[in-house]
Structures are given as structure tokens and as C-alpha cells.
Fold this protein.
Amino acid sequence: MSGEEPTPVKRFARVLALLLAVRTLARTLAGREPPPPPAPESEYDPSQRTVPANRQAETVVAALLLVAALLGCGFVAIYVALQTNTQLLGLALGGMLVMLAAAAIIAGKLVVPQETQVEERGELLVEDEAEEVVETIEAGVEGISRRKLLAGAGGAAGAAAIAAAATPLASLGPRLRGIHDTPWHHGVRLVDEQGNPYPAGEIQVGTFYTALPEAGGSETFGAGVLLVRLLPDQIHLPAPRRAWAPEGIMAFSKICPHAGCAISLYRYPTYEQTSLSPAFTCPCHYSTFLPGDGGRVVFGPAGRPLPQLPLMIDDLGHVRAAGAFPEDIGPSWWDVHRGQS
Amino acid sequence: MLIAQGYDLYQSSCSSCHGIGLGGIAGVAPSLRGVGPGPVDFYLSTGRMPLENPREEPQRAAPLFSRGQINALIAYVSSFGGPPAPVANPAAGDLSVGFHQFTLHCAGCHQIVARGGLTLGAFVPDLVQASPQQVAEAIRMGPYVMPHFDYHQIDQHKLDSIARYVLWTRQPDNAGGWSIGNIGPIPEGMVAWFLALAAMVLVARLIGERLT
């Protein structure tokens, strides 16, 4: 690429400049418009104006409408005959809309009689009347001896009314049960997309795998998990989770706890001392999680760590789940941690 | 002979960071023992190495060494062992398979027509200049913070197909007729919005009139 090749930024700047030029042009054109009619002093009211019948304009409008109709029929014809030619379809539909708009503009300007009326608004605040109202209201409380009692009772009634109105919200439902369960339980084997188990010895450092539960179905909620292997000095799991990463192999929910996108980016440094630690990133909003720290969030809108699935290695050397997810997976809500001790 | 030339080049240009015996220097640069020819060719032929400051992200640049010098360095570093250089043959690949695999493994960072982007803490390079050989080397080794992909994830046919797709992205079909730099669906859509907005404001100004 030569140095003179315009970068996207330069191109964007050019587009901006073009837009500014268009704006300037529009302002110039507006400035050339004839000055507004004289102020309403005489019996001539400039806000009322009539357009005499204009046969020529009517013909033009009719012609534009007919062209629009033709283009609309053309759209149908192209759809039936060619189907996949989206460019022609768009041209026909867009052309029809432009013709309709042009017809409406010309009709509005030259065909339809126009009159504009202005209605004067009455005065909003008459001070004498306002004072009278205030006096009436103040007079209303005179002669009441137990104001506090009445105010308290009124407050109680109001609160009760609000509570009664809000109570039916509890009937909203049904309450979801499915989202608390995933196909992952103790002993479920991790398999790849073809259904082959993952031998622990083949899980490499520096790359990531997507695993599914054996016989769990790939469409089940929470089926997909991320599978990685880290070096011992990259793992800083909290004490209760020490056993969850046999041989440094770890699994995490593939569903981002922010908006539920599938986490598909993994960054693994060639040389960690001069760059960054291993991390998962969600492609939707760039929430970034550190697998070595148990899925801790280091960037982005995610509000909680990526749920980790405890793992074990069976006698055949295959990777299996050592239990269910300890918390709910998927996008977060207000009591997502319910049930956690 | 080639190895001797590579030894001289290594000692003068690489050893200050990677160590005199290729063992690496803690906190500065990793060991190069057993990396094989692939990474050496990738980093040198894309001009990412030598790096002035070892803490910087290696970026694509004009290669410092000639092809012959790179071959000598490959011969020297490979004499310490390592896997053979990966190869990609785009002609044997399938464009449709390549598109699917690229979407699956690469597009999240490199963007669907390989124009690059950002990830947390690193620039993602565009692949316009990447040769099929370099694509294969990057997939197998995972340069900088990119993960590597082994034969289970991307077999040789898929690798050939991805290389073919990357070549195709140099001049992708622009269905709309205007590429706007292939900067991605959201900014492209915003350009359309701004143009349409400007056009509509202009039309509104032309047909409207003000009552003072």
C-alpha cells in the first residue's frame, strides 16, 4: 500500500467535508429565497394565501404518480421474475418512493389551496384570579381540629392503595425454572462438535476449544463451554476452586454474563512478560475475562465473572465435568447469585 | 555456510534480546530454541522483528532483511530443532469453506473482510498484505496475543481454504457498489444514515417555508 492511498479516516473526513459543503449550499439557497411578506398591519393577511387552479402542475403530479405506480408494479414483476436481484428490487422500490415524494411536494406547493391560520392564545396567568384560588384553598383547612390525624389517615390510605395496585405484579409469570439448569452435571464427558471426547493430553496451551456435553445436545441451554489449558504459574484460582483445573485444564461457560453473546475470542500472549495475560473476550461489547483468575472481569460491561465449570480427568484420560455450574449462567439479572452459599 | 551466515546475523541483530544462545532473556524476550522455521519466517518477512523496544507490540513494516538473509536466519534458528514450516496452498482450498472457517475462527478480531481492528491492549492487523505462507504461519504459531490453531481445529484443507479466502478479501465483491473502505457493518451503516439525513434535511429546507 503506498503512502498516498486514502485511509478510512481520510475517506471519512472527505465525506464529512462533503456533508458540510451540502449544508453550506442549502443555506445559500435558503438565503436566496424571497424575503417574507410585510408585517400584518393592513387588512391583507400574509398567512392566508390561495393558489389558483394550476392545470400544468396537476398534469405533472398525475404523471409522477403514474410513474410511481409503474415502478411499484415493476417491483412485483421483478420479484416474481428474477427474485434474487436485490439491486433491481431496491431501485424499483426506492424509485417509487422518490416519485411519490416528488408528487406530494409538487401537489403541496402548486395544486392544493393553502391557508394558514394563527389563533391567539389567551393569557395564562391572571394574578387576581390566582390569589383568589389560593385564598379559597387556604380557607378550606380552617375549622379542622385534628389535622395530624387526618393527614396520617390519608397517608395510610394512599400507601394502602398503592400497595393494592402493585400486588398483582406478583402474579406475573410463569416463573422460569429452565435457566437454572444446564446439561452439565458430575461425570458428564466433554466432547467436540463431532462428538469425540477430549483426551486431556491433547488440550494444548495457547489455544482454545469449544466443548459440548456428551448426549446433552448442542442446542440445550448452556451446552457450549470454553476449554483451555494454562501453565501452572498462570493460574491463581481461589482456594475452594483449586481442584477445578486438573493439569491446568479449565472450562468456562461460553455465554457472556452481560448480554448473552457467544464468547469466541481468546487472547494468548506469545511472551506474557512483555504483553498481556491470557483472556477471553466477548465479540459483542468486548467484556474481557481472565481464565487464570477464575473468569474475573477486567474490561467491559459484564457485571460478574464468567461462570467456571469444575473439571476432572477420568481413568481413560478424558475430560469430564466434576459437577454442575455453581451459579446460574447466561446474562445477569437481579438475583442471579440466588442459591449460592 | 547458510547457518554460519545466519549465526552472524543473529548475533548482530537478535541476540541482545533473545540471548546469545537463543535461550531468551527473562522479562525481555522469549527463547527461540525449538520454534522451527515458521515463526522466524513470519516475524522477519512481515518486518515485525527486529523490534526496537521489546515492550512494544510488533507491527507490520518493511522487512529489514533480504530474502537471502531471512533464509540464513531460518537455517540457523531451525538448527536448534522445531516443527517444520507450515504451508498453505490457496489453489487447493475452497472459497466457501474458507469463508465459513474465517467467520468461525478469525473474523471476531480480524473483521469479516480482514480489515483488522482492536482487541483489549493490542491492535489487530489487517490482512491485505498477508501472503498465504504468512497466513499459515500465523494460524499455526499464534503471533503476539493471537491464539494458535492446531490440526484438530483447522486441518490442512481448512487452512488452504482460509488462505484462499484471505486472498479474496484483498478485493472483495462490494454488493452495494461502494466499499467505504470495508470498515465494518456499523460504520458503513452510519455513513448511509448520515448521507440520508443530510439529503432529507436539504430537501426539507428546499420545500419548506418559514412563517416569521
Chain B touches chain A through 48 residues (CB under 8 Å). The mean pLDDT of chain B is 88.
